Amino acid sequence: MYSVLQNKKNIQFRFEKFPYLIIDDALPENIYENLSNSFPKNEKIIGNNEYKENFAYRYNALNSLRDEEITNEWKEFIKFHTSFEFLEEFYEIFSNSIKQIYNVEKDKLFNKDNIGVRFENRNHFNLDCQFVINTPTSGDTSVIEPHLDNPVEFYAALLYMKDDNDDSVGGNLTTYTFKDKPSFYGKSRVREDKVNLIEEIEYKKNRLVMFLNSPYSIHGVTKRSKTNFYRKYINIIGEFNFELFNYRAFLEK
Fewest CB within a 10 Å sphere: which of 104, 181, 184, 194? Predict the structure, then answer.
């Protein structure tokens, strides 16, 4: 199985305060097309949940691996991206940033015996590879403002799978840096006047974005234009069973 990180020659590094990378044509075209054509039906991902406009629905690795309707190609993809082999690939690329931000060596993070698929057991380190869709929108609608991910999360990778016929605009990932000291409100949200935009990363097919989660990993998603298309992507996650940092110390009073 090809890794989403295999196309090393296309890696664009952004390894300053907020470490992340972008890879266009992350997967070989034939592999990508096979996966795209067998992406699960929207109804499966939404399941029995109430339908909402411009809302994110997810179908996790544990469910997918047990689901007879998920193709073998997808199951192999999910197995690899929840494996120790993929963890080692991630660490090889992000090791310097990990040491700078968290001041920790690899042997203190994870090993073959203390990882597993998220929600299957309570492992020291949990891995997931989710199908995600954002439902259509009847007008210009925000997806999510600048924010931090859950502080248990160590990394996240997004493999965009935009439909060939989807001519809508927006739904792009935005990355930010604080203008001054960190400042949050609510559930790790950040006011736009507190940050500077680093860049806007277009939502496009077979593009991967991967980042190391930290108190500086501020990101959001731009408004989506009116569309009948679903925004589709794969979310690859690695997380500990404890919080890595405390953003609440910087909550606005």
Answer: 181
